[in-house]
Amino acid sequence: MRGIEVKFNQERKTVGVESGMLTIHILDNNGDSRIYIGAVDYEKQKELLWCDWIPIKPGDKFSAKLTRGGEYSKPCRGKKNLKIERPKTKLEIFREMESQLKKKGFL
45, 47, 60, 96 - which has most CB atoms within 10 Å? Predict the structure, then answer.
């Protein structure tokens, strides 16, 4: 699994999840700017959180770099037992549609 090394001001975190979706959001709402870094782990059915809408301001430094995985920073919070399903990939959707078209004789 790949992860993302995030540097925000003087803080560095390596975030990632073995089987899931990692999100980094930067929100600006009329000058109220914030950053969120979290993930959803489909295998463990839990949400992980590293930055929970932390305020940011002009001049703050932020960078993100793709890593090859390894050790991840400990999340500050997590919710378990969420009943989350992994979304289908475009290839899975294509194959399902292809199968349906073949059954109907269009392919």
Answer: 47
d(CA 106, CA 40): 38
Give the DSSP H or E segment for 96: helix 90-103
Question: Taking the CA of residue 106 as centre, how many other CA atoms within 13 Å lie in the half-sphere pointing to its CB?
Answer: 6
Write the CA distances from 106 to 39, 45, 92, 100, integer angstroms: 40, 39, 19, 9
pLDDT tens, position by position, 22-67: 899 999 998 899 999 998 888 888 888 988 888 998 888 889 998 8
Other C-beta atoms within 10 Å of 55: how many? 9
84 and 45 in contact (C-beta within 8 Å)?
yes
Is the CB of residue 18 less than 8 Å from the CB of residue 39?
Answer: no
